[in-house]
Design a protein that fits this description.
about 150 residues; alpha+beta; Aminopeptidase; 7-stranded mixed sheet; 7 strands
Amino acid sequence: MIRKMLKSDADFVYEIENQAFFEPWSKKHLIKELEGNSFLSHYVMEIDGKIVGFYIASHVLDEVEIFTIAVDKDYQKRKIASQLLNHLINSCKDLGVKKIWLEVSTKNIAAINLYTKFDFKIMGIRKNYYQKLGEDAYNMLREIND
């Protein structure tokens, strides 16, 4: 089940965030954005009452930017990221969104393959986007046509 994230989910989301990313959001920042940023959408996926993945995206006018999609390491390779991304894309269609943007490390082949499977195209490269890792990022776009 995919549902809106609640403040009570913060511990679980923070744990997944820490597994998945070199520079995760702090729990304090996560809660602040959840409670106070009306441009952000926060969703979690639950299996048998356990949060196994989540996404955060911003929505301004007719564009969305995916900030993060992450899946608990114990639940990877079960198409959870695909389900979360599909949920986000369908929500965008319902809202009249025309473009979905994201950045992804050029070394994150699994994520690049996922986004490509969902018709995201590489639009450019951001050199040294992940400065502490010294990694570049692809800027990717999915256009939604009526």
